[in-house]
Amino acid sequence: MAEIVKVYKEHLPSLRFIGKCYTNADRDGGFGHKWMEWFRNGWFGELETLGSEMNIDCSYLGFMRCNSNNFENTFEYWIGMFLPSDTSVPDGYDFIDLDEGSIGVCWIKGKEDDGSIYGMHDACIDKFQEHNMGSFMDDNEKRFYFFERYNCPRFSEKDEQGNVILDYCVYLSDQ
Fold this sequence. Notes:
The protein is an alpha+beta fold and about 180 residues long. It is built from four helices and eight strands; from the N terminus they run ββααβαβββαββ. The chain has a single domain (about 5-170), classed as Multidrug-efflux Transporter 1 Regulator Bmrr, Chain A, CATH 3.20.80.10. It comes from Lacrimispora celerecrescens.
């Protein structure tokens, strides 16, 4: 059973998220098969050669955005990384430019293999609201921005009980 073990606010500089975009049509239960494709094709290695943003956690990301009033038609699931805002985008990738701002972060602790850490969106939203972080940023298409951050070693190294920690983050509104 997954549980939220930490909730906090973090500030990020202006960034360029570089990756590949998928939609609900690409789902096969989830997007695990797309992650396998990324590792098989060495796409993270290609992005890592572009540099890194030294003031942030440069983990691999599952970056999502959607308009909650039209989830089915607006949901996007991106796989990629945060890079400096002036990074050139290689062929075969796309990007999202992100302004400097704050994010809410939940640490979700649980077993990766049973999938329970991936079904905690609503619980994280509740926790953000409890911690006065309930105003979420949206763009001109009314899409909210949230992401899974696969931090090394929190996510990559299991504890004594076989648990990992997945960071679940949402961009916050300045209001």
